[in-house]
Amino acid sequence: MDVGIAGLGRMGAGMARRLARGGHQVVAWNRTASVAVEVAAEPENQGRITVAEPLATIVERLESPRFLIISVPSGDATEQMIDQLMEILSPGDCIVDAGNSNFHDSQRRAAKLEARGIDWLDMGVSGGVWGLTVGFCAMLGGKREVFERFEPAVKTLAPEGGYLYCGPAGAGHYVKMVHNGIEYGVMQAYGEGFDILHASDFDVDLASVARMWQNGSVIRSWLLELAGDAFEKEGNDLSEIQGWVNDSGEGRWTVFDAIDHDVPAPIITLSLIQRFRSRREPDSYTDKVLAALRNEFGGHAIKAAGDESS
Questions:
Q1: Which residues contact 118 (CB under 8 A, 6 or more apart)?
Q2: CA spacing 20 to 30 A to 26: which of 51, 189, 239, 300?
Q3: Is 183 one of the annotated active-site residues of the chain?
Q4: For residue 28, what are the β-bridge partners?
């Protein structure tokens, strides 16, 4: 099928490439047009990805009804992109928000678009920079019949069994929000565990521990695999990494929603608070592990040891 993508950052570019290599025709737009040109020119993408510049030309290159994925930062950037697209899309077209938007915003945006006859899907996506090769886990919300029309693209984006229609507008981003809240807690546990091992009297090779735990252990996971990668690259001490850990919003929203529903969620809540603390005292080994993991799975920037910038 034909799919448009607006925004070719780490996730958007990976989705464009995976769709193209899966046999779909992709029309791509990026704020910096040269990025779209470079992606389209890659040998694997030639003839499969074309560039829309300016944004309005994207409607000329897609057959109606159109599906347009937006992959831009949540908040104002997403809102502005939707407002622009509302003016050029036609009734029956669909905007698919693949960013980490707040589910309340997704519900509001779906209603705003419905008034114009434009369909909506919110698609929470996990997979980070590895999504191109292993697939993007996708959680979708919106009208089921719209999801079913878009499903051929989702099947290409996701690994087998790695996507789900979650319910009406907002449901996809809600499930992704909770997913990221869980991620905070799991990462914190790994960080603290490796901190204890690193502080012990035993000179244990942490990369080897992570690799060993991947075989038969009840705590094996992809995050643990990435921890092994980080220790192999950076060494046991992680001495070149500052323990400064950002949060992109979903953990906060998960905690807020837990409070709204009177759900006790101490692990997720405390893991979020620990990230706040890391930005004031970025010397904790636990936080070095978290920073390294965020870089491994999502390409999130690492602050070098000694970097005092905020």
A1: 86, 89, 90, 91, 92, 93, 94, 95
A2: 300
A3: yes
A4: 5, 51
Q: Which residue out of 44, 87, 183, 296 is catalytically annotated?
A: 183
d(CA 260, CA 180): 18
- Closest by CA to 1, choosing from 21, 13, 19, is 19
DSSP element (H, E) containing 49:
strand 49-51
Would the pLDDT of 309 be above 70?
A: no
Q: Which alpha helices (H) appear in 200-284, and where do they start and end?
A: 206-213, 222-234, 250-260, 266-278
Residue 117, exposed/middle/buried by CB under 10 A (0-12, 13-18, 19+)? exposed
pLDDT in tens, 29-52: 999 999 999 999 999 999 999 999
Catalytic-labelled residue, pool 42, 145, 160, 176: 176
- What does each C-alpha distance from 129 to 10, 146, 187, 207 come to in angstroms? 6, 27, 17, 21
Average pLDDT, the chain: 95
pLDDT tens sequence across 273-299? 999 999 998 789 999 999 999 999 988
Length of the chain counted residue by residue:
310
DSSP 84-126: HHHTT--TT-EEEE-S---HHHHHHHHHHHHTTT-EEEEEEEE
Question: In Å, what is the CA distance from 185 to each residue of 47, 179, 182, 211, 270?
Answer: 43, 10, 5, 21, 8
